[in-house]
């Protein structure tokens, strides 16, 4: 202890560091550096809070739920999938410090999902959601630990997939006509989805300010009630044919703020509720086809009119598969988008 520091600290400093010898040695060296920095001022010494300094050396401990909240607050993603995965995992393995989870915890999680009847693709998505959270935790907390979700094999992965059905043009026209004559705002979603290729939440969560009926355009962009699935999902789409007619009807039934106010509850877009209501009708009248089949059908219809693949991805807000070059620029102008949608559209007569 330097003589000029004795007045502040006394003849010596006693502080418990760690029960682990190697860890205690490392803490002692770091503490010495801090104290020597304080003692370098021979005229005026600022006392060091030794206890607080030692505590700052120790790794932070976080519960999985805490680090997950931090991760989700930083990421602009649809929070439903990771929250569903997180809730199930914590119910099985407990809400523990992130460094405590093991491969056995993950295998228990996978077995539970399989026994509950989840498809292997769903299981993989749940694993990926949790793996991303733990990767973030290990990086932020400087933990030298292997992620227990990494390189996990799922027995029979991919063997339980099925090809989603598509609507015929006759089914689409029949459904559109029925939707427009039914007086049901929910059924209007069929032509709105079928003729734009949008995801259901993108339409159900539209604000009226996102709709331009003078120019027959909709602007798909995030808002306070719902996020978008990917950055590519932000786009502007023309309304043609049945989509224009259905949008005009839907706007008349809106509340002046939201296109489908019945599905905006507590500031959140309840797209699942709209999906359940729409699918009840679609499955009954169209041999089990669902709202998401409309999106797949649109992709086939665009292929059939020789729409460029990059433009198909732009229309549907899909992640572009054409390489990094396709991400440059602003994409196809709305006039070109409208041209291809008109060719692919279901005609009213």
UniProtKB/TrEMBL annotation:
InterPro entries given in the database record: CB, DNA_brk_join_enz, Integrase-like_cat_sf, Integrase_catalytic, Integrase_recombinase_N, Phage_Integrase
Pfam families xrefs: Phage_integrase
Tyr recombinase domain boundaries: 162-341
Annotated keywords: DNA integration, DNA recombination, DNA-binding
Any Gene Ontology biological process: DNA integration
Top-level taxon of the source organism: Bacteria
Keyword Cell wall biogenesis/degradation recorded: no
Start and end residues of each Core-binding (CB) domain: 62-138
GO MF, one example: DNA binding
PROSITE patterns (alphabetical): CB (PS51900), TYR_RECOMBINASE (PS51898)
Stated family: Belongs to the 'phage' integrase family.
Full protein name: Tyrosine-type recombinase/integrase
Native species: Sulfitobacter sediminilitoris
Phylogenetic lineage: Bacteria, Pseudomonadati, Pseudomonadota, Alphaproteobacteria, Rhodobacterales
């Amino acid at each position: 202890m330097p003589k000029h520091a004795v007045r502040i600290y006394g003849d010596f400093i006693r502080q418990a560091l760690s029960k682990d010898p190697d860890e205690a040695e490392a803490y002692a060296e770091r503490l010495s550096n801090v104290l020597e920095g304080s003692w370098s001022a021979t005229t005026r010494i600022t006392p060091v809070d030794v206890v607080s300094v030692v505590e700052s050396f120790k790794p932070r401990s976080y519960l999985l739920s805490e680090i997950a909240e931090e991760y989700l607050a930083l990421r602009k993603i649809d929070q439903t999938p990771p929250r569903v995965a997180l809730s199930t995992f914590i119910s099985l393995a407990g809400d523990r410090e992130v460094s405590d989870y093991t491969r056995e915890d993950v295998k228990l999680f996978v077995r539970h999902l399989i026994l509950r009847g989840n498809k292997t693709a769903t299981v993989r998505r749940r694993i990926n959601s949790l793996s991303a959270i733990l990767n973030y935790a290990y990086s932020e907390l400087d933990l030298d630990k292997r992620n227990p979700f990494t390189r996990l094999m799922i027995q029979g992965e991919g063997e339980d997939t099925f090809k989603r059905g598509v609507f015929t043009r006759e089914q689409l026209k029949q459904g559109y006509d029925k939707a427009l004559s039914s007086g049901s705002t929910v059924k209007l979603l069929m032509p709105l989805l079928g003729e734009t290729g949008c995801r259901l939440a993108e339409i159900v969560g539209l604000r009226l300010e996102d709709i331009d009926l003078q120019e027959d355009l909709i602007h798909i962009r995030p808002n306070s009630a719902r996020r978008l699935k990917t950055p590519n999902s932000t786009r502007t789409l023309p309304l043609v044919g049945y989509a224009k007619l259905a949008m005009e009807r839907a706007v008349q039934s809106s509340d002046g703020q939201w296109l489908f106010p019945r599905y905006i509850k507590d500031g959140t877009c309840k797209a699942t509720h709209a999906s359940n209501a729409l699918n009840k009708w679609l499955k009954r009248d169209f041999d089990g086809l669902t709202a998401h089949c409309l999106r797949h059908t649109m992709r086939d219809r665009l292929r059939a009119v020789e729409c460029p693949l990059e433009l198909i991805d732009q229309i549907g807000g899909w992640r572009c598969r054409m390489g990094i070059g396709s991400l440059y620029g602003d994409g196809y102008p709305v006039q070109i988008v409208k041209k291809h949608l008109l060719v692919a559209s279901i005609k009213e007569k």
